[in-house]
# Entry
Amino acid sequence: MTSPRSRRFLAMTALALVAFAGGAMREALATCGVFADVPDGNAFCASILQVYYLGITSGTTPTTYGPSATVTREQMAAFLARTYDRTASRTSRRAALGQWWTTTPHYDQQDLGLTTVGSGPRALKSDGADVWVARNVAGTVSRVRASDGKLLETWTGATSGVDVLVAMGRVFVAGNASPGNLYLIDPASAPGAVTTVATDLGNFPRAIAFDGTNIWTANSNSVSIITPGSWSVSTVSPGFLSLFGILYDGTSMWVADSNGDAVRKLNADGSIAQTVTVGDAPVFPVFDGNNIWVPNFNSSSLTVVRASDGTVLKTFSAANGDQNGLNAPAAAAFDGQRILVTNSGGGLSLFKAADLSPIGFFATAGVLQPQGACSDGVHFWIAFLGSDKIGRF
# Structure
C-alpha cells in the first residue's frame, strides 16, 4: 500500500486531468480565494481554486485548504472520481448544447418523440445529426433527423438489412442472407436504391463494426473482414458458435457469442485472442471507452467487462439484487455518461457508466418490443420492432 499523498499532489493531479477540458483558472492569482492558509502568490493557488470551483474539493474547513495535510487512498479515489465526472460533463455534446437534464430521464410518450418508419425497424445508428434505421423485412433504410424526429428520406434494396454502420462519411448495412451482403449509402446522394458492394460475406451477418481500416461483420458462426475500396472479403470461422453483436474498443474487435455464453476478443486476422464468460445468450454489447456492457438475453442480466484485460467487473441480475428491470435485454447503447439497455419484454434499463450503478427502469407504454438502440450524443433512440416506430428517450 502506498503512503498517503499530500494535498499539493492532489492539486497537481487534478490540474493535469482537467486541463484538456479548458479549466477555469489559468493565471496566478494575488490571493487564494477563500483559503486563508494558502499564502499569497503560492504556485499552486490557481490549481487549488480550480478544483475548488469545480466542486472536486471544498477544503478541510470553509476557510482552509490544508495544503500540507495528507490524503488517504480512499480520499484520492473520491477526488479522482469527481474529477472524471466534472470533465465528462463539461466536454460532452450535451454540455455544448446546454442540455443538462440527465438526472431525471423520461421517455417521450405517445406522439412526442416517436417517428413512424414502417414495419419491422430493428437496428439504428446515428451520425450525430441524423438517425439511420434498417428495416429487416422491408429491406429499406430510413434517415430520421435527430433534432425533431422528422423522417427525411428512405433508401430501398437493402434486402434483409439487419445492422447499420456509420463510417468514412458513408452508411453501411449488413444484409442477413446466405452468403451475406454489404450495402452502401452515400448520405449526400438523392434517396434511391442502396449500392451493393459485397455479396460474399459469411452466412447470415447480424452485426457490423469498423476498426478505422476495415469493416467487420459478425455472422451466424463466423466473422468477415471487408477492405473498403476493393471490397475484398476474408471470413474466419473456427471457434465461433452463434454471434450476435460486434464492437471495436480502439484496439481490438470483440464479438458476443450467444451460444457460447461469452464475449470473444479477436486478433487482427479475426482469430480468437481471448474468451470471457458472461451470462446466458449475450447479445449486442456496447463499449463506453473503458468497459464493455453485455446484455444477456436468456438470463435477463447485464455483464460489465473491462476491455483492457477481460476482467468481469460486475453483473446486474436478480440473483445479485440489482436487476434494474432487465427482461430479455436486446441491446445496449452509450451516450457519453449513461448506458441504456432495451428489454424485449418491455421497458428500458438505465445505468451510470462511471461507477457501474443502476439509475432506474422506465416503462415504454404504447410501444412494443424495444430492440436496437443508439445515441446521437444527446438523446437515446430506440427501435420498437413491434410498433413500426423509433422513439427518443
